[in-house]
Amino acid sequence: MHDVVIVGAGPVGLFLACELGLAGCSVLVLEREPEPGAPWRTAPLGRRGLFAASVAAFHRRGLLEPLLAEAGPAFGAAEDDDPARPRFAGHFAGIMLDGADVDLAALPLRLPGSVPDAVMTSLDTVEAVLSERAAKLGVEIRRGVAVDGLTQDDERVVVRAGAREYPARWAVGCDGGRSAVRRLAGFEFAGTEPQFTGYVALATIPDVEKLNPGFTPTPRGVYLRMAADGHIGVMDFDGGAFDRSQEVTREHLQEVLRRVSGTDVTLTEVHLASSYTDRAMQATTYRRGRVLLAGDAAHIVSPLGGQGLNTGIGDAVNLGWKLAATLRGQAPDGLLDTYTRERHPVGAWALGWTRAQVAAMRPDPHAQAVQGVLRDLLRTRNGTTYVFEKLSGMSARHDLGDDRPLVGRVAPDFRPADGTTLADLMRDGRGVVLDFSADHHLRASAAAWESELRYAAGTAENDLGLGAVLVRPDGVVAWAGEHVPDRGSFERAARRWFGDASV
Ligand SMILES: Cc1cc2nc3c(=O)[nH]c(=O)nc-3n(C[C@H](O)[C@H](O)[C@H](O)COP(=O)(O)OP(=O)(O)OC[C@H]3O[C@@H](n4cnc5c(N)ncnc54)[C@H](O)[C@@H]3O)c2cc1C
């Protein structure tokens, strides 16, 4: 019997497996696909953008280097002379952002660091990096196992695949948008039905110059010609009518592309094609008994604005340490329930973010008028900065009952004067106390939570005017103190997240 069975070895399941493995839990991952690296998970179709909060999550565990080694083309359209400026290009409703227009002065909680604000990678790269790490941490990954049954009682969960049974104390469904775990465990999944069918494909297109580069809205939909040869996308506002169990044929794709683009462009061959929709749905809770959901199993959004994977990584990071503490019997009361409480609003935001884009991309005069207003707004520094901050994930804030602006957000990568960074201090998966106070005021208090918290004292390159911060293992600031930090207030925060002192 394992501590945790994770269903799905996608990026979210594997990230969670690494977090649990790091915390010493026994983890079994069950994956339906017999082999990794399916063609649509490799670049260019499998290309995915990771934004700042996810980049920080990989960085904290020392996983950013291998990811960058395999990264795709630099993420960012604009460069200027300022190395602290984000080289960044996301989009909103197909309107590209220019990193040079981000007003850094308006982001006082962002500390420019050595890591990029966004990384262009691919699903297979993320999965390879995480699988290797998981194996080193003793996680067992079994492939070719399609889960089709699940029962639970007060003591355990039994996950089934055909006649095989996999008992565990907890199970987590990371098995994607059509999650079997979600269905088998009786989660409610609620949201909105699609307005369009989207297609992504790799094709041979001899007259590709008939298509504009980038996103092109037309009176009939939107098409997209990406940088890689033959990599195209189309959004056909058919109300999601295309039967997605069908193969996307060359004839069908050419007909849709011609109709939407208003050209007579020719696809002589389609090498790879898949379809998606903008159905936006979310599980009403992420936990039922001993079964939890994370990633696309918990929420599905259209790919617009690249939030699906980023939201899923955030789920895994948030859940890992809480589930591990629960398994060790060290979790303070209700810790695991903060997973839904904190992550459900973030998922709901992602649904809204993509719905807003769909509303602005519809091929009707009202939506096109909204699109015009958005274009104007995104030509302003304020508009670009607003979207940049939202996309980055760094502005998402859990309500932890403390008004200080940093509390509840992902911590910026503080740089203690000894040359380390906060991320360096977080590799072992413990929380961190950064004590910037002159007399190392919290040293004795923090020592009482030594097995859960790493203590680091000293000045920092920029302490954002704070005397100390308590950072949870998921990188979220749980507490912040003044120049002479209040020990009682720190100890209450430490007890709230880590339980009674262990020494
Ligand atoms: C065209 C496109 C572009 C996108 N671009 C971005 C982007 O730039 N940024 C971004 O953040 N997101 C993007 N997304 C969304 C992103 O790909 C998903 O949100 C992400 O892959 C979800 O990860 P996951 O691990 O939750 O699920 P998946 O990646 O779906 O992995 C689930 C795993 O579970 C396995 N599985 C399923 N059922 C079972 C079963 N019954 N038993 C065992 N195993 C099972 C599957 O084989 C799979 O390996 C994009 C999506 C699309 C379609």
Concise synopsis of the structure shown:
Residues 3-349 form the FAD-binding domain. This protein is of the alpha+beta class and 503 residues long. The chain has helices spanning 11-22, 52-60, 64-69, 123-136, 180-184, 250-261, 308-328, 337-361, 365-377, 381-392, 422-425, 443-447, 487-498, and strands spanning 2-7, 27-31, 47-51, 91-92, 95-96, 118-122, 140-143, 149-152, 157-161, 164-173, 189-192, 197-204, 214-218, 221-225, 231-236, 269-277, 280-283, 287-288, 291-293, 299-300, 431-435, 453-457, 468-471, 477-481.
Notes on the structure:
The chain has 503 residues and is an alpha+beta fold. It has 4 domains: 2-74 and 116-189 and 281-361, 3-Layer(bba) Sandwich (FAD/NAD(P)-binding domain), CATH 3.50.50; 76-115 and 362-396, no CATH class; 197-277, Alpha-Beta Plaits; 422-498, Glutaredoxin (3-Layer(aba) Sandwich). The protein is built from 13 helices and 24 strands. It has helices at residues 11-22, 52-60, 64-69, 123-136, 180-184, 250-261, 308-328, 337-361, 365-377, 381-392, 422-425, 443-447, 487-498, and strands at residues 2-7, 27-31, 47-51, 91-92, 95-96, 118-122, 140-143, 149-152, 157-161, 164-173, 189-192, 197-204, 214-218, 221-225, 231-236, 269-277, 280-283, 287-288, 291-293, 299-300, 431-435, 453-457, 468-471, 477-481. Helix 1 packs parallel to helix 4. The radius of gyration is 23 Å and the shape is globular. The model has no long low-confidence stretch (mean pLDDT 93). It binds flavin-adenine dinucleotide. The site of flavin-adenine dinucleotide has 31 residues, from helix 1, strand 2, strand 3 and helix 7.
